[in-house]
């Protein structure tokens, strides 16, 4: 077994141990085996190269085909359990993980801050060690990304990021599966983000170039993505030969886009900023007028929950909108991630074209 250390985005060291070996560098990422993700943490897609992301998507598509389309029973996680820590409430993350893990034969344990002593009567370090002795996997939806890093460092089982203030990797996997299903391939697509420079955008920025996708970003002044993320993402895009463009003009960003994406303008914990944010985001609502600047085949994505000021009903409920397919794919992609991390599963269907 080979062990080595990388520096994550915040400058902290992360140790990767795996049966696979270092082969080469691709788009600024260490190239690991694309077929064995067992035992890996999923804290950010920054830690995964393009082939590994494709592997996750391939496994997700395979499970969806076998279970949903063919009606097969696949108890791949029988006898296993997952601790689901939720500091922030959720619809899609909870339901997709809970039902998905159960569908695969495992036992999900839903835990809020009222259910366990997380950082109050018991340190996070001790909680991580206790949960590691009782479960096979931890998914945590938290406010601070550092809490996920601490769980990963102090525990002995893999940790999945269910959402943090920096990243939302499991949402982006669902977005990519949706685009793969709709367009047949991801390579060459132009994704336009119109909205806040938040965790979902960060995850796009750190993964889209690895899949050969171009990214155009429009945010109001003062609401740009994290500067450190931006610097790394621009470098990644250059190495991968893709384009990444930033502006404060939503219509300029929409030019030539195959995909228009937005998200909530007021996230949990930002309620006191609502009035200021709504004023700053005036003119950022996605409408059919926005679509006139995009490519003829443009579609719309939103991770939900959605507010009308972010996208009007005409777009949201139109054939251009894939938001409910996207929401369902949260289930299949988290299942793909959990199976990949906990087992040696090999997809049965042929590998999709990426």
TrEMBL record:
Would the keyword Signal turn up in this protein's UniProt record? Answer: no
Where does the Aspartate/ornithine carbamoyltransferase carbamoyl-P binding domain lie? Answer: 40-181
Could you name the Gene Ontology cellular component terms for this entry? mitochondrial matrix
Localisation: Mitochondrion matrix
Q: Which domain of life is it from?
A: Eukaryota
Q: Which residues form the Aspartate/ornithine carbamoyltransferase Asp/Orn-binding domain?
A: 188-340
- Where is it predominantly found? mitochondrion
Write down the InterPro entries for this protein, in alphabetical order. Asp/Orn_carbamoyltranf_P-bd (IPR006132), Asp/Orn_carbamoylTrfase (IPR006130), Asp/Orn_carbamoylTrfase_sf (IPR036901), Asp_carbamoyltransf_Asp/Orn-bd (IPR006131), Orn/put_carbamltrans (IPR002292)
What GO molecular-function term can you cite, just one? ornithine carbamoyltransferase activity
Say if the entry is tagged with keyword Translocase: no
> Tell me, which GO biological process terms does this entry list?
citrulline biosynthetic process; L-arginine biosynthetic process via ornithine; urea cycle
Q: What is its EC number?
A: 2.1.3.3
Q: Per the database entry, which stretches of residues form a coiled coil?
A: none
The annotated pathway is: Nitrogen metabolism; urea cycle; L-citrulline from L-ornithine and carbamoyl phosphate: step 1/1
Q: Kindly give the SUPFAM superfamilies that the UniProt entry links to this protein.
A: Aspartate/ornithine carbamoyltransferase
In terms of Pfam families, this protein maps to: OTCace (PF00185), OTCace_N (PF02729)
**Protein family membership:** Belongs to the aspartate/ornithine carbamoyltransferase superfamily. OTCase family.
Q: How does it assemble?
A: Homotrimer.
Protein name per UniProt:
ornithine carbamoyltransferase
């Amino acid at each position: 077994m080979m062990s080595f250390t990388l520096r994550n985005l915040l400058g902290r060291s992360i140790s990767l141990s795996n049966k696979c070996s270092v082969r080469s560098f691709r788009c600024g990422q260490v190239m690991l085996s694309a077929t064995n993700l067992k035992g890996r943490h999923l804290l950010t897609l920054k830690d995964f190269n393009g082939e590994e992301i494709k592997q996750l998507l391939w496994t997700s598509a395979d499970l969806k085909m076998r279970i949903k389309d063919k009606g097969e029973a696949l108890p791949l996680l029988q006898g296993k359990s997952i601790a689901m820590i939720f500091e922030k409430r959720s619809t899609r993350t909870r339901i997709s993980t809970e039902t998905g893990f159960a569908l695969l034969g495992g036992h999900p344990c839903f835990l809020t801050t009222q259910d366990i002593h997380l950082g109050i009567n018991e340190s996070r370090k001790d909680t991580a060690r206790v949960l590691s002795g009782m479960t096979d996997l931890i998914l945590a939806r938290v406010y601070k990304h550092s809490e996920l890093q601490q769980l990963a460092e102090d525990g002995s089982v893999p940790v999945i990021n269910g959402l943090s203030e920096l990243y939302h990797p499991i949402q982006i996997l669902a977005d990519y599966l949706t685009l793969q299903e709709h367009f047949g391939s991801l390579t060459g697509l132009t994704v336009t983000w119109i909205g806040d420079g938040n965790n979902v955008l960060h995850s796009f920025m750190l993964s889209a170039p690895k899949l050969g996708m171009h990214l155009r970003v429009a945010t109001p002044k003062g609401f740009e993505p994290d500067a450190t993320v931006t610097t790394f993402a621009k470098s990644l895009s250059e190495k991968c030969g893709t384009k990444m463009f930033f502006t404060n003009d939503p219509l300029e960003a929409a030019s030539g886009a195959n995909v228009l994406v937005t998200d909530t303008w007021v996230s949990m914990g930002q309620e006191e900023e609502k009035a200021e944010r709504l004023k700053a985001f005036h003119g950022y609502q996605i409408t059919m007028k926005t679509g006139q600047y995009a490519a003829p085949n443009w579609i719309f994505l939103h991770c939900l929950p959605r507010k009308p000021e972010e996208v009007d009903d005409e777009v949201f409920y139109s054939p251009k909108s894939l938001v409910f397919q996207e929401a369902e794919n949260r289930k299949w992609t988290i299942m793909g991630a959990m199976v990949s991390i906990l087992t040696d599963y090999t997809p049965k269907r042929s590998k999709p074209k990426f």
